[in-house]
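Protocol step 4 of 6: structure prediction from sequence.
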Amino acid sequence: MTGLNAFTMPKWGIEMTEGVIGEWKVAEGQTFAKGDLLALIETDKITNEVEAESDGVMCRIVAAPGDTLPVGALLAVTSASAAAADDVDAFIAAFGGTPVPAAKPPPAPETKKPASARKSAKAKPACVHSSRRQTLAPRATRAL
């Protein structure tokens, strides 16, 4: 089991708690070189490219495209050279097993407003435009 590396969900910001696997650029069993693009990971704000930090082989992809996973979750297992499937399975089990996509919070229940609140809740325009020329009171012009 030596020589196997965990490819985990990176943390790119203080508030980042999870990411979504956008696309894998390397298939299982495929070799890659340092600097090669391995995956695209989407956050709340942007899509990030994850590059290989060293040469290696993609032993096992654990997370599928579209999976939402917390920071630190196991996404894939890499190695400097090919590894036996049993070793990869043992590595995943020791890491904590196959991660389950993060559950999305249930939608907040809708609360019904009283009829009087619904009538007063009609949106008023933020800015009223008028063809009339607006003038300032003398006291207001002195304040400017």
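Step 5 (inspection) to follow. Helices lie at 85-95, 115-120, 138-143.
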